[in-house]
Write a structure and sequence with these properties.
Blueprint (H helix, E strand, L loop, with lengths): L1 E5 L4 H12 L5 E6 L4 H11 L3 E4 L2 H10 L4 E4 H9 L6 E4 L7 H9 L3 E4 L2 H18 L3 E3 L2 H9 L6 E8 L9 H5 L3 H4 L9 H9 L1 H13 L7 E5 L5 E7 L4 E5 L5 H9 L14 H4 L13 H12 L3 H17 L5 H14 L8 H19 L2
Parallel strand pairs: 1-2, 1-5, 2-3, 3-4, 5-6, 6-7, 8-9
Antiparallel strand pairs: 8-10, 10-11
Helix pairs in contact: 4-5, 5-6, 6-11, 10-15, 11-14, 14-16, 15-16, 15-17
Bound molecules: magnesium ion.
Amino acid sequence: MKISILGSTGSIGRQAIEVIQKMPDYFEVVSLCGGDNIDLLKEQIKLVNPKNVSVKSEENALKLQKEFPKINVLYGEQGLVDVASDTTNERILVSVSGKTGLKPTLAAIEKNIDVALANKETLVMAGDIVMKRAKEKGVKILPVDSEHGAIHQCLKNRDEVEKLIITASGGPFRNKTIEDIKNASVEETLHHPRWNMGKKITIDSATLMNKGLEVIEAHHLFDMPYEKIQVVVHPQSIVHSAVEYVDGSVIAQLGFPSMHIPIQYTLTYPYRFEGIETRSFDFVKAGRLDFDEPDLEKFPCLKLAFEAGKQGGTLPVVMNAANEEAVFAFLNQKISLWEIYEITKKMMEQHSNILNPSLDEIFETDRITRLSVQNLTKI
Ligand code: MG
């Protein structure tokens, strides 16, 4: 399998490299794209020996080119798009963070290259456009996220589906009061009980906005109305998600929490191979499994996401951009955790929604929303 990794130095990208290293005969890495972590990228280049590398800045590209004269070094947004549309690829993994994932994903689809998608913004911002084009081109969008990966494995005939059940660990504040959440420090919020992830997604997991984004992604990936998507809090993170069929049968995907499994699944699909962690699943060790309804009073971001998703258009773009900027402001200790919700809600209320937006309208809405939030959170 000839693959490229867009975002190789992030959390998902690093684990993908581990998966690839375990199966050196199966994978051939065409390109690696990293951001600013050049030291790690250099290590990865030595490990997987790619033909092309792309980095964020021209300056770093020049340095890398000197050090690796045989590799074709690219940079910037265009570098990502060039890597993604290289037809040497049979599949690309899009694990960059933020809106930078959208253009390369579309570029790959145009060239009939299957996409293992770990970037949330791609579908939250432009799910209608991306999925329509993927369908027209017969390109597979394979979701890396554990929940969507689970549904992908459980979903057979979508006409017979009663509902999708997306599980949520509930984050660090599941058993806290609203007052605790309002006064939460950055440190407490970054302490996720189950998953070790990047900072942005960890904050989103604490507010349940992450689950909200996943609901919108699930709607697009599986072409399912919002009324048929249910979020269930499941603190042990053993059931990664499930599908209920019209006859009442439920098919769930289970496993101990590990991102290696869903990453490997999307890179080798439709085949399965022995994984990195050899321990097999054990129901007895998993022990007790609890399920609970999400508390929308304590976690109103989830409600916002359902609203944004149902209304569609550019409203999810506003929600995503406002939330991300507010999360950055929170991480920089400029606002409280609760203000992430308040700011996002305010931006959504102010927005005049554009239905069926073009890509330009999507990016412009994103840009304006970010500016507004930056002005609002400036001290
Ligand atoms: Mg997830």
